[in-house]
């Protein structure tokens, strides 16, 4: 894996030292155990560890048909004030078929117009229930943003999928919300928005 042992300078998979210090792999902190031929190296990222503990979730809007030429589809995540967790984003994806579209991410947005549907975030570890503290809604139609900070307006392209691998760089704290919006520029187009995150106790 190209990771050197802190003790002898050799490669972890070849040296016989026991690993007791945390190291960084691919620019991120990981937990390392093992370190000899008979005691194999085990590397767990924070995302993988959270998933093993049943703290990683995913939600998507499913594919929605937007009939108006300026309709949009938003996925809104809210972290309740007393949730006791912070949410750390893994990725965001927006897909639109056969049309130019843009992607916007906002902090604490307020929308007017359109229709709202409550969604259920799913636990990515099938051994655990769907017990996310973060709530999710789908807002679609001819909606207007009346307030909220624009964090990013990232892409306009001719159909396809836009994936943003935040990998922990987007954090949702209690009492705040974020929205991921796909906006199309032609009527009768299908759009889907999805995201995944881990929840860490405060």
Summarize the SSE layout with pairings:
Blueprint: E1 23-25, E2 28-33, E3 42-44, H1 46-52, E4 56-60, E5 64-66, E6 72-79, E7 85-112, E8 115-119, E9 122-123, E10 135-141, E11 144-164, E12 171-172, E13 176-184, E14 189-201
Antiparallel strand pairs: 1-2, 2-3, 4-9, 4-14, 5-14, 6-10, 6-13, 7-11, 7-12, 7-13, 7-14, 8-10
Question: How helix-rich are the residues, as a percent range?
Answer: under 10%
Gyration radius over CA? 21 Å
Could you tell me the mean pLDDT? 80
Main sheet makeup: 11 strands, antiparallel
Shape, per Cα inertia axes: globular
Residue ranges: pLDDT <50 for 5 or more in a row?
Answer: 11-16, 18-44
Number of strands: 14
Count of separate DSSP helical elements: 1
Distance between the termini: 33 Å
Q: What structural category characterises the helix and strand content?
A: mainly beta
* Helix/strand order, N-terminal first: EEEHEEEEEEEEEEE
Strand fraction: over 45%
Describe the structure.
This protein has 202 residues and is mainly beta. 3% of the residues lie in helices and 57% in strands. The chain has one helix and 14 strands, in the order E-E-E-H-E-E-E-E-E-E-E-E-E-E-E. The strands form two sheets. Strands 4, 5, 6, 7, 8, 9, 10, 11, 12, 13 and 14 form an eleven-stranded antiparallel β-sheet that branches. The longest helix has 7 residues, at 46-52. It is globular.
């Amino acid at each position: 894996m190209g990771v050197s042992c802190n003790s002898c300078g050799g490669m972890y998979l070849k040296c016989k030292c026991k690993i007791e210090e945390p190291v960084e792999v691919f620019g991120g902190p990981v937990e390392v155990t093992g370190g000899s031929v008979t005691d194999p190296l085990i590397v767990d990222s924070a995302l993988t560890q959270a998933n093993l503990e049943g703290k990683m979730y995913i939600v998507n809007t499913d594919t929605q048909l937007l009939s108006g030429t300026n309709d949009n589809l938003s996925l809104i995540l809210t972290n309740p004030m007393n949730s006791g967790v912070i949410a750390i984003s893994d990725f965001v994806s927006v897909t639109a078929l056969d049309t130019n579209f843009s992607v916007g991410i906002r902090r604490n947005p307020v929308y007017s117009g359109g229709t709202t549907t409550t969604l259920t975030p799913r636990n990515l570890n099938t051994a655990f229930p769907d017990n996310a503290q973060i709530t999710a809604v789908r807002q679609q139609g001819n909606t207007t943003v009346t307030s909220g900070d624009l964090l990013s307006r990232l892409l306009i392209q001719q159909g396809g999928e836009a994936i943003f691998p935040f990998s922990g760089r987007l954090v949702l704290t209690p009492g705040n919300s974020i929205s991921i919006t796909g906006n199309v520029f032609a009527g009768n187009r299908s759009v889907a928005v999805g995201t995944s995150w881990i929840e860490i106790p405060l």
